[in-house]
Amino acid sequence: MRQTLTFIPTLRETPADADAKSHQMLLRAGFIRQNTSGVYSFLPLGKRVLQKVEEIIREEMQNVNSVEVFLPALQQAELWQETGRWYSYGPELMRLRDRHDREFALGATHEEVITSLLRDEIKSYKKLPLNLFQIQSKFRDEKRPRFGLLRGREFLMKDAYSFHATPESLDATYEDMRQAYTNIFTRLGLNFRAVIADSGAIGGKDNHEFMVLSDIGEDIIAYSDSSPYAANIEMAEVNVTYPKSVESPKAMEKVATPDQKTISEVAAFLGASPEQCIKTLVFKADDAYAIILARGDHDINDIKVKHALGVKTAELASAEEVQNLLSAEIGSVGPVQLPSDVKVYADHAVKSIVNGIAGANETGYHFINVTPEQDFSIDQYADLRFIQEGDASPDGQGIIQFAKGIEVGHVFKLGTTYSEPMEATFLNDQGKAKPYLMGCYGIGVSRVLAAVAEQFQDDAGFQWPIAVAPYAIHLVPINMKDDTQRELAEDLYKLMKDYRYEVLLDDRPERAGVKFADADLIGIPVRVTIGKRASEGILEVKNRRTGETFEWQREELLDRIQ
Ligand code: ATP
Ligand code: MG
Ligand code: MG
Ligand code: MG
Fold first, then answer.
1. What are phi and psi of 399, to 5 degrees?
2. Under-50 pLDDT residues of the chain
3. Nearest-10 crossing angle of helices 483-498, 554-561
4. What is the DSSP string of 91-144?
5. What Gene3D superfamilies would the database entry show (predicted)?
6. Which pairs from 484-492 meet CB under 8 Å and 24+ separation?
7. Pick from 269, 323, 315, 277: which is nearest to 299 by CA?
8. DSSP per residue, 54-97
9. Does 465 sit in the ligand 1 pocket, CB within 6 Å?
10. What is the per-residue pLDDT for 314?
11. 468: helix, strand or coil
C-alpha cells in the first residue's frame, strides 16, 4: 500500500484525555479514533491489526473444530426473558424498541440467541457435540468505559458456544478450547496466565480467565512461577467447595434477584427479614449486591471489602461505616461482626448462609429455601480465606505473587444453565429428552489488540510483533524528488509485493524527519530506508524492536526476503 493512498492520521502530541499507553499510542499512530465514550472507529492500520488477531483466532478455533457462524446483534427481548437475564442483567444491557414498540437488546453476549437457534435444529445426541463461534461486535453499556479499547461499550468479541450430550464430551472440548486459547495468546506474544476464575457451582476447574500481566489490568491475580496454580484473587480462596445439593437441589429454588436498591428490599424479595440480613450484610456493590457470610466471631475491622456499600470501591470499609450504612437502611443495628477471612463477591458469586438464603454463584441470582447443613456444609467455610502474597501455593509447589491482569479471554462450563430454562433438549441414546450441556468461550478481540499495543511499544511508537503487524516491511525513500531513490523504491515495492510481502511504501513528499518519526510511531517490524546511497544500490535496513541497522545491497535484501 502507498502511504499517499491510505489514511494514517498520526499526531505529534500525546492526546491529553487518553488514559492508557495503548490508547495514547493507538491514537497517536493513527490506528483508531474515538467517536464517543467507549465507541471507536478502526482506521486502516487498526483494521489490519484487528484482522491479523482475528485470523490467528480463526485458525486456532478451526484447529479444535469450532465452526464459524454470524449471529444477530439485534436480539428480541423475549429470548432474554426466557432465561430471566432481561431482568437480571442490569443497565449494562443496551435496550431499545422497534416501531411496533417491541423490545430488543443489542447483543452483550449470545447464549440465548445460539441456544434458541440450536433447540429447533439439534434434536438427537447423534448430532452432538457441536462447537460454533463468531467474531462480532458486542454492546455493553459499561459503567466506566475507559482505557480506550480495553473497556469499550461497543467492542469486538470472539464468542464460541459448545453443545454436548455428555459431561465427558464437554470436558474434552473445554480442554481443547483452553489449549486453543493458550496457543492464541502465545502466538500473539503476550505475557499471560490462565487463572482459576470461579470456585463456584461446578468447581474451579471449569472456569478460567486468561489474564495478560499488565500494570493497567483491572484484576489482580495470584500466581507462582514454580507452580501451575494461578487464580483471580477474587476467587483465590483456599479449600472452597460448593453446597452439596446444588447438583440436585431439593427444596432449594433458584430465583433471579432483580435490582433491589436497599437491604430491606433485597430482604423482602428473598423472603427474609432485614434483621436476618444483618449477619449476612448485604452490600451494594456497583449495581450488584454481595452478601457476605458472618459467623459472629470476627472483627469487622479486618475484613477486606472490595466493593463495599457503594461508597468505596477497592478499599476497606470500616466497621463504623458498615454499621452506619446498615443503621440508615434498616434501623438500629447492634455491633456488627464479620469474619476477617471472607471475601465479598461483588460481580459474580454471592455466598451466604442465612436462614434459608444462599448465593447462587451467579450474578443476579439467589437460592431460597436453603437448609443450612443440608444444602450447605458450614464447615467447608472454616478454611475459607484469602490468599496472600508470600503464601505457599495451594499445591505447595511455589510461593504466591500478585500481579495485575487484563482479562483477555474467559472459558467456562455453563452446564444446563441456559438449555434448561430455554427447554433446549435433545434425545439421548435411550430416547430420553435432556437439556444440552454447554460451554462458552470468549475472547475480547479489540481488547487483545489493546493488550498487545500496551506491551509492544517504546517512547517513539509501536514495536508490533510480526504476527499482528499491520505490514511486514516499511519502505521509506527519503527524497521522492530524487529519481534514483524513487525508482529503487518503486522497484523494491513491486518485487516485494510479487513475493507477497505486506509492504507499506512511504511515497509522501515529506521531510526525512517526518517520515522517520511516523515510521517509528506506526511500528512496522522492518524499515527499509532508501537514501543517498541508493545510487550504489545500498539500503539501510532497521529492526524496529532492537534498533539494529544493517546496510545491505539491493540483491542481499532480496535474497533474504525471497
Ligand atoms: P470484564 O471483567 O473485563 O468486565 P467480562 O468478564 O465482563 O470482562 P466476558 O463476559 O467474560 O467479559 O466476555 C468475554 C471477553 O470479552 C472478556 O474476557 C474480555 O476479553 C472481553 N470484554 C468484556 N468486556 C469488554 C469491554 N467492555 N471492552 C472490551 N472487551 C471486553
Ligand atoms: Mg464485564
Ligand atoms: Mg470479568
Ligand atoms: Mg469474564
1. -105, 135
2. 199-204, 236-250, 260-261, 276-319, 329-357, 360-361, 376-385
3. 20
4. GGSEEEE-TT--EEEE-S--HHHHHHHHHTT--BGGG--EEEEEEEEEE---SS
5. Anticodon-binding domain (3.40.50.800), Bira Bifunctional Protein, Domain 2 (3.30.930.10), YbaK/aminoacyl-tRNA synthetase-associated domain (3.90.960.10)
6. 484/534, 484/535, 485/530, 485/531, 485/534, 488/530, 488/534, 488/537, 488/539, 488/554, 489/530, 492/528, 492/530, 492/539, 492/554, 492/557
7. 323
8. HHHHHHHHHHTT-EE----SEEEHHHHHHHTHHHHSGGGSEEEE
9. no
10. 25
11. coil
- How many CB atoms sit inside 10 A of residue 239's CB? 12
In degrees rounded to 5, what are phi and psi of residue 175? -65, -40
Strands (E), 445-532: 457-458, 461-462, 473-477, 503-505, 526-530
- What is the C-alpha to C-alpha distance for residues 372 and 377, in angstroms, rounded to an integer? 7
Express each pLDDT in 323-381 by its tens digit.
Answer: 555 555 444 444 443 333 333 332 222 233 343 445 544 555 656 655 555 554 444 33
Q: Could you tell me the strand order of the sheet in which 94-97 lies?
A: 74-76, 103-106, 94-97
User: What's the grid cell of residue 488?
Assistant: 529503487
**Quick one: which of 307, 289, 308 has its CA closest to 351?**
289
Amino acid identity for residue 209 in this structure:
E
Which atom of ligand 1 is nearest to 152's Cα? 28
- Is the Cβ–Cβ distance between 184 and 135 less than 8 Å? no
d(CA 528, CA 509): 17
Q: Residue 561: its pLDDT value, please?
A: 76
Q: Read off the C-alpha cell for 9.
A: 492520521
pLDDT digits (tens, 9 = 90+) for 149-179: 999 999 999 999 999 999 999 999 999 999 9
Q: How many Cα neighbours within 13 Å face the side chain of 31?
A: 31
Q: How far is CA 491 from the centre of its chain?
A: 44
Q: What is the pLDDT of residue 284?
A: 31
Output the CA 219–ligand 2 centroid distance in Å. 11
Buried b (16+ CB within 10 A) or exposed e, 132-153: bbbbbebbbbeeebbbbbbbbb
Task: Specify the ligand 1 atom closest to the Cα of 151.
Answer: 28
Ligand 3 centroid to 197 CA: how many Å? 8
CA distance 439 to 437: 7
Q: Which three cell numbers stand for residue 276?
A: 436476618
Q: Which residue has the least CA distance to atom 25 on ligand 1?
A: 151
Q: What is the pLDDT of residue 559?
A: 87
| DSSP for residue 220 | E
Point out the ligand nearest to the CA of residue 155: 1
Q: What is the pLDDT of residue 558?
A: 87
Q: Which set of grid coordinates corresponds to residue 176?
A: 481443547
d(CA 135, CA 67): 11
Find, among 474, 448, 444, the residue nearest to 461 by Cα.
Answer: 474
How many Cα atoms occupy the beta-carbon half-sphere of 139 within 13 Å?
13
Confidence (pLDDT) at 346: 25
Other CB atoms closer than 10 Å to residue 155's CB: what's the count? 22
Query: Which set of grid coordinates corresponds to residue 32?
Result: 483508531
- Secondary-structure breakdown of the chain: helix, strand, coil percentages, each rounded to the nearest 5: 30, 30, 45
CA-proximal residue: ligand 1, atom 31 (nearest) = 444
